[in-house]
Amino acid sequence: MQSVVIVLLGIAGMAFGWFVYSKFIASKIYQLDPDFVTPAHEFNDGVDFVPTNRYVLWGHHFTSVAGAAPIVGPAIAVYWGWVPAVLWVVLGTIFFAGVHDFGALWASNRHKGRSMGALSEEVIGSRTRALFMVVVFLVLLMVNSVFGVVIANSFVGTPTAVFPAWAAIVVALIIGQLVHRKFNLVVLGIGGVIVLYMTVFAGSQLPLELPAMFGLSTEANWILILFTYAAIASMLPVWVLLQPRDFINGMQLFVGLVLLYGAVFLFMPDISAPAFNGQLAEDSPPWFPLLFVTIACGAISGFHGIVASGTSSKQLDKETDARFVGYLGAVGEGSLALITIVTVSGVALAATPEAWHAVYDEFGSAGAGAFISGGANLIQSGWGIPAEVAQTLLATMVVLFAGTTMDSGVRLQRYIIEEWGDIYGLPLLKRGVVATLIAVAACLLLAFGAGGASGTGGLIIWPLFGSTNQILAGMTLLIISVMLIKLGRPAVFTLVPMILVLVTSFLAGLITLEQYWRDGNYLLLGLDVVVLITSVMVMLEAAAVVVKFQREKRSQVSS
Questions:
Q1: CB 97, CB 301: distance < 8 Å
Q2: Which H or E element spans position 364?
Q3: 64 C-beta neighbours (distance < 10 Å), count
Q4: Helices (H), 49-157
Q5: How many helical (H) and strand (E) elements, i.e. helices and strands, does the chain have?
Q6: Within 10 A of 20 (CB to CB), how many other CB atoms are there?
Q7: Which domain holds residue 407?
C-alpha cells in the first residue's frame, strides 16, 4: 500500500510540472512563437534536418535521452533510502530536467539548430566553444561506452532478450518506410507495438547465446557487434531508422509503464527498503553530493541537452512543439525513474527489510538487474503474466533504450567531429564516414582500454560519467541563463538549478578524483581533471561576459 501513496504523490507533482510550471516557462521565459521558422524547415535536407510530427519527435527525443540511465541510477541510489531518491526525482523533473531539456531545445532552435557546443561561441565566446565541445565529446564517449557494456551484459544475462531486441530494428525499418510514404501513424504505432510484443513472447521461449570468438569474451564480442551496428545506423537518414525505432520504443515504454504502474495499483505492495538507510557499509560514499550525480537521467542530465540541440532541434516542426517534446520528455523519464525506485524498494524485489538489505549490502551492489527481477515479479503479481515473459519484456526495454541512446550518441559524436573539421579547416574530418569511424574507435578504445580484453571499461567509468554529465547540465543551464539575461528576461528559473547542479557535481568530481588517485587509475584521474578544469574555465568566461554586458547596459542607460 505504501507504494501506491508514493506513486500518487509523484504523479501529482509531475502533473503540476506539465500543466502549470511548463506553461509558465513557455509563455513568460522562453516566449515560444508559433510563427517562427524552425531550422527543420529552413535547412530541410531529408537527412538530419527533417520537419517531424511532434509525437514521433517526442518518441525519438524521449527514448534517446532515456537509455538505461533512469533505471540504473535510481536503482543504485535507493541504497541511501527511498525518500531522498523520490524527492530528487520528482523535484528534479519539475524544476530542473524539464526546464533544462526544454531550454536546450528552444535555444538551439533559435540558433539554426546548432549544438550547445557551437551555440556557446555565439552566446559567450570562441574559447568557451572549444572548452564546451571537449566536455560534450567526453560525455558522449562515456555514454556510448557505458551503454555498449550495459547492452552486452543484458544479452549475456538475459539471452531471451536477444531476439526481440534485434527484431525491433527490422520492425523500425519497415515502419520508417511506411511513415515516409504517409501511412497512418496511429495504425503503424499500434501494429508495431503488437509485433514487438509478439517477438518478446517468442524471445522468452527462444534464448539466443553468442559464443566466445576471436579470443574475446562473449560480452566483448557483443560490444564489437553493437558498435558496428551503431556506426551504420548513425549514418542513415533519421527517418529510415532513428525516428521509427525511437517512436516504437516510446510506445513500448508507454505500455511497459502502464504494466508497472498498473501492477502497483492492482498488487498494492508495501515498501521493504528503509526511508533513510541507517545500515550503510563502512566504505559507502556519502549521499551528499553523490545522490545528485548517481540519479542523473530521471532528475536532470547534461546528455539531454546534447540530444535536444544535436538531433531534436533539427526535427522541430513548430517552435511551440518544444514544450511537448522537451518538457514532456523529461516528465516521461521522471516517471520511469519513479517506478524504478518503487520496484527496487518494494516486496516484489525483497519480501522483508532483512532480505532487502541482503540485496543492497553495499553501494552499487544492485542496479538494472534488480529492476528487471523486481519488475518481473511485480508484473506477475499484478497482472498474472508469466515471470519469464515479464523478465524478457523488461530486459528488452532496457536494451532498446540503451540501443537508441547509442544510435543518437554516435551520430552526435559525428556531428562534433565534423564541427571540429569545419573549425580547424580539416576537410577530412567533415566526411561522415571518417567522422563516424573516429567516433566509434574512440568509444572502443575507452571500453577496452579502461576495462581490458573484457571491454568492461564502460562500467568502470560510471562514477566519472555521473559527475561529468551533471557538470555539462550545469554548463547548458549557464548558456541558457546568459541568453535570457541578454534578452532582458528573468533568468532565476535557470540560474538556481544551475548553481545546485554545478556545486553538487563539482564536489562529486573531487570525491571521485581522490578515489581514482588512491586506486591508481590514472586514465580516469586524467579525464576527471580535464573535466573539472574545463568546467571552471567555462564558468569564468560566462561570468566575464555577463559582467561586461551589464556594464555596457548601464553605460547606455546613463548616456
A1: yes
A2: none
A3: 31
A4: 54-66, 69-77, 82-92, 98-109, 116-123, 126-157
A5: 25, 0
A6: 11
A7: 2-281+289-558
What CATH code is carried by the domain that includes residue 54?
A: 1.20.1740.10
Say if CB 387 and CB 376 are below 8 A apart.
yes
Largest CA distance in the chain: 79
If one counts the domains in the chain, the total is 1
pLDDT tens over the chain, length 559 residues: 589 999 999 999 999 999 999 999 999 999 999 999 999 999 998 878 989 889 888 877 887 777 677 888 899 999 999 999 999 999 999 999 999 999 999 999 999 998 887 888 888 877 777 778 888 888 888 888 888 888 888 898 889 999 999 999 999 999 889 888 888 878 888 888 889 889 988 998 889 988 878 778 888 899 899 999 999 988 888 788 877 887 777 777 888 889 999 999 998 888 999 999 988 988 888 899 899 999 988 899 998 998 899 889 999 999 999 999 999 999 999 999 999 999 999 888 888 999 999 999 888 777 778 898 899 999 999 899 998 889 888 888 888 877 877 887 888 888 888 888 887 888 888 888 999 999 999 888 877 766 566 555 556 666 677 888 888 898 899 899 999 998 999 999 999 999 899 889 888 888 888 888 887 878 778 888 888 888 888 788 878 887 877 787 777 766 6
DSSP per position, 365-412: S-SHHHHHHHHHHHHHHHH---HHHHHHHHHHHHHHHHHHHHHHHHHH
136 neighbors 116 (Cβ within 8 angstroms): yes
- Apex 199 CA angle, 197 and 201, nearest 5: 75
The Cα-based distances of 393 to 133, 138, 200 in angstroms read 37, 32, 6
**Contact in structure between 411 and 236 (CB atoms under 8 Å):** no
Note the pTM of the prediction, 2 decimals. Answer: 0.87
Distance, C-alpha 69 to centroid of its chain: 6
* Residue type for position 16: F
